[in-house]
Design a protein that fits this description.
Elements: E1 16-23, E2 27-34, E3 37-44, E4 53-55, H1 59-71, E5 80-82, E6 91-99, E7 102-109, H2 122-134
Helix pairs in contact: 1-2
């Protein structure tokens, strides 16, 4: 920080957070942290619904999210995951996150960290579930 103040060790809010998961068919989820607000949108057929909702995770929920991301090794994920199956009926995902001095930008197309094929990995499923808990949803439609 330029003003000489140091961040509180208990601050668990991200400096940046954006997560998208979806494709040309089926549901999609777009979550972003903007001006201290966690906004999210569900959509279908790869578009955007135009209905932006706001979630209000508690400090404890942000702490759990941060711990989950660290446990899953999100900060060490490769910048890009692409499979041989990334040409049609594709599920795309994108993550940009800055938190606790860590920063990552990762994306994928029918490929996920910890998976040798197009199967969704345990790490990615757990991360997605952690995002869904932040917005107060238990499962992706």
């Amino acid at each position: 920080m330029c003003d000489g103040a140091s961040p509180s060790p208990h601050t668990s809010l991200p400096a940046a957070f954006e997560f998208y998961l979806g494709g040309s068919v089926g549901p999609s989820l777009y979550v972003r942290f903007v001006d201290g607000r966690l906004l999210y949108e569900w959509a279908s057929a790869g578009g955007y619904s135009g209905v932006v909702m706001e979630a209000s995770p508690t400090e404890e929920e942000w702490v759990k999210f941060r711990e989950t991301a660290t446990r899953l090794g999100v900060w060490e994920w490769e910048p890009e995951y692409v499979s041989a199956y990334s040409c049609c009926d594709v599920t795309y995902w994108h993550l940009r996150m800055e938190m606790d001095g860590h920063s990552t930008v990762v994306r994928g197309a029918n490929a996920y960290p910890g998976s040798p094929g197009r199967e969704v990995s345990r790490q990615f499923r757990e991360f997605r579930a952690a995002v869904e808990r932040l917005i107060g949803r238990e499962s992706f439609p």
